[in-house]
Amino acid sequence: MTISQLQYVLAVDRHRHFAKAAADANVTQPTLSMQIQKLEEELGILLFDRSKHPVRPTAIGDRVIEQARRAVQEIQRIDEILQVSKNNVEGTFKLGIIPTVLPSLVPRFLADFRAQLPAVDLQIVELPTDHILDMLRRDELDAAILATPLEERSIIERPLYYEPFMAFIPPNHRLGAETFVTNSELDIDDILLLDEGHCFRNSIINLCNSHPRQSRLGISLESGSFEVLLRLARQGQGMTLLPYLHARELPESDQSLIKPIAEPTPTREISLVYSRAELKIKVIDELAAVIQKAVPAKLLKEKNKILSPVQQVG
């Protein structure tokens, strides 16, 4: 049994396809297939059911794959321990970021991060919270930037900043003439929402303490993009809520349509999260410092009305 064989097995489990796994492992498919077959013969079991499309681990294969993942992770940590002992900050750092944070945050800190840590290959992926948490559990990401609190026992949540919600209201809306909006004036059926899977949507549902039903405008639309929601709002199809950083980056022509929400202002906590076993703490420390320097100072102060990103309304 070799480390390479275990890595090939993990690649097939990740892609559920031998050709894609071979490309990921940078070997030919015959080489990958032969090495996995050798391992199966050594163990006396089948790791994958090749009759399924996509291929799937067998019942015993699932257990072996999980142990293989731990073994490979521990081997990789040996190099990380050596790098830490030498005070080296280099190598690949894989960072997951949720879609409602990435566009407004990454351009703020990326250049400074690269200047501070030029030897670190920062690889950023945009994924929903559930996918990111799954990848963190599987050690496929070094860290992530998410809305918290999530109360996941396996990860550490390190708050970075606190981002208020802003209302985007067209002039012809019932609240269009207001200079600010109160929590009690918000109606879930009058708010254009992101689609399911976005934690920002969950926070709005928790804020309104209600699930969306039927819009008073006679439409029911959910989108994965703030831009679509904004275009509809500009057309008079309802209002929407935005994170502070996104709202402040809208064109000057839209700024008069942005209304603050009165205290207690609904706010989301944005955190850097990572495994309790993570060794790349020097990169994490530097990343946290660069991000906190890049956002407005007023967002660094802890707020009282933190909305949960986990849907709580029954």
Order of H and E elements: HHHEEHEHEHEEEHEHEHEEH
How many H/I helices?
10
Q: Just name the CATH architecture of the largest domain.
A: 3-Layer(aba) Sandwich
The CATH homologous superfamily of the largest domain is named Periplasmic binding protein-like II
Q: Level of helix content?
A: 25-40%
CATH topology of the largest domain, what is it called?
Answer: D-Maltodextrin-Binding Protein, domain 2
Shape: elongated
Distance between the termini: 50 Å
Tell me the number of strands. Answer: 11
Mean pLDDT value: 89
Q: Using only CA atoms, what is the Rg?
A: 23 Å
Taken together, the total number of domains comes to 3
Which structural class should the secondary elements be placed in?
alpha/beta
In short:
With 314 residues, the protein is an alpha/beta fold.
Which short descriptors sum up this protein?
elongated, two-stranded antiparallel ribbon, 19% strand, D-Maltodextrin-Binding Protein, domain 2, 3 domains, nine-stranded mixed β-sheet, 10 helices, 314 residues, alpha/beta, Arc Repressor Mutant, subunit A
